[in-house]
Amino acid sequence: MRDHYYSRDPQSAHKTHEFHTEIGGREFTFTTDSGVFSKLGVDYGTRVLLESLPLPLSGDVLDVGCGYGPIGIAVAVASPKARVTMIDVNRRAIELCRLNAEKNGVSGVSVLESDGLSQLTGRAFDWVLTNPPIRAGKRTVYRLLREVSAHLREGGEFWLVIQKKQGAPSAVKKLRTLFADVSIASRHKGYNVIRCIR
Predict the structure, then answer these.
(1) What is the pLDDT of residues 76-133, one digit of tens each?
(2) Phi–psi pair at 164, nearest 5 degrees
(3) What does 93-125 look like in DSSP terms, one character per residue?
(4) Contact 42, 123 (CB under 8 A)
(5) Could you tell me where the DSSP H helices lie in 28-156?
């Protein structure tokens, strides 16, 4: 079976890559590997999401499908008062995320292996952020949306980015069945950043 970035335990041969990049006026260094999403650089959708967020954030922040960590790490650096948790089903991504948090001087973040939000029973968050695994299919993505709605505090905000051609309009319809307030926070080159308030 072919590896995907949403595989629990990628079998592809390791091929690490390190790159330097700027996010929000700050310099970051990330180590990536085969079998993880966007290994050659921070993808455009992630950048559009990060540029749209009202940073700094505060309270409990969850990065769903964190990959090697660009969203959670960038938010943690910009938001010293936030308590950031990062989750992913991909064990290789989790190892890289922990390495990159240390490499970028981010302490106090929690990085957990979790299929969706299954390992977060009883926990609630003020902010949930994701560039969802669209290639995993609508069933998987919509399960994540439902799980997020169950873990968001009253008044909390869920921010996600989806390309219009990859289902943003239908995702908005689904989100409106789960959240009190759903709006498009920004649009750029086909990417929609969606803001949901519980």
Answers:
(1) 999 999 999 999 999 999 999 999 999 999 988 999 999 999 999 999 999 999 999 8
(2) -55, -45
(3) HHHHHHHHHHHTT--S-EEEE-STTTT-TT--E
(4) no
(5) 44-52, 70-78, 91-103, 138-151
- Work out the end-to-end distance of the chain between its first and last CA atoms, rounded to an integer number of angstroms: 39
- Contact assessment for residue 125 and residue 150, using Cβ atoms and an 8 Å cutoff: no
Place of tokens 């308030």: 197
Identity of the amino acid at 106? V
Backbone angles phi, psi at 10, to 5 degrees: -55, 135
Q: Quick one: how far is CA 31 from the chain centroid?
A: 17
Average pLDDT per consecutive 10 residues, the chain (198 residues; last block may be shorter): 48 82 96 84 95 97 96 97 96 95 94 94 97 87 95 97 91 96 96 97
**Residues in the chain, how many?**
198
Report, in angstroms and rounded to the nearest whole number, the Rg of the chain calculated over CA atoms. Answer: 15
Query: Cβ–Cβ contacts within 10 Å for residue 151, how many?
Result: 20
